[in-house]
Design goal:
It comes from Niveispirillum lacus. By secondary structure, this protein is of the alpha+beta class. Helices cover 33% and strands 23% of the residues. The protein is elongated.
């Protein structure tokens, strides 16, 4: 009786060489991991090549509400006084309008109240951020470009950005 190894598949296979994983790829991967580790340690020790975000203080803070009015108008009001800061008609205020849609979506996901205020902050570093007081989300507006950050910085009024 023949063994299971000689019944065909295993019998013909045992004469073939085994394909091994290429040693060059393993050495290159090990070299890359070693280089990355050394580069991180070097950067941490010397500070060369490391980008650090310095903490800064807020220079101007304003709580605002952004709502939609009739005719697809977007109205920005001061949350503490109730005074209208600016009202954007249907074809204006593109970035403010888009931000409102994004924050409305975050509030829907978090089941947060829709009438809560947003906190607009100009930082000592010059950055401008918009925080949702209902969800705790904060977006640094400079990431969307200077013009878009300036659109919100103008809403700070005389304390931080000039009148819109």
């Amino acid at each position: 009786m023949r063994s299971a190894l000689s019944l065909g598949y295993f019998d013909s296979r045992k004469r073939r060489t085994i394909n091994r994983f290429p040693a060059g790829i393993l050495l290159a991967t090990g070299g890359l991991l070693t280089f990355a580790t050394v580069a991180v340690l070097f950067g941490q020790e010397t500070g060369i090549g490391v980008v650090r975000e310095e903490a800064s203080r807020p220079l101007a803070v304003r709580d605002i509400t952004i709502t939609r009015a009739a005719g697809d108008q977007v109205v920005v009001t001061d949350a503490t006084t109730g005074a209208v800061i600016v009202a954007y008609p249907a074809n204006e205020g593109g970035f403010v309008r888009g931000s409102l849609r994004a924050f409305e979506r975050m509030r829907d996901v978090a089941s947060a109240p829709k009438d809560a205020a947003y906190r607009l902050i100009r930082w000592e570093s010059g950055r401008v951020s918009l925080s949702d007081t209902a969800t705790g989300e904060r977006v640094y507006l400079d990431a969307f470009g200077r013009d878009n950050a300036a659109a919100f910085a103008a809403l700070l009024g005389p304390q931080g950005g000039g009148q819109p």
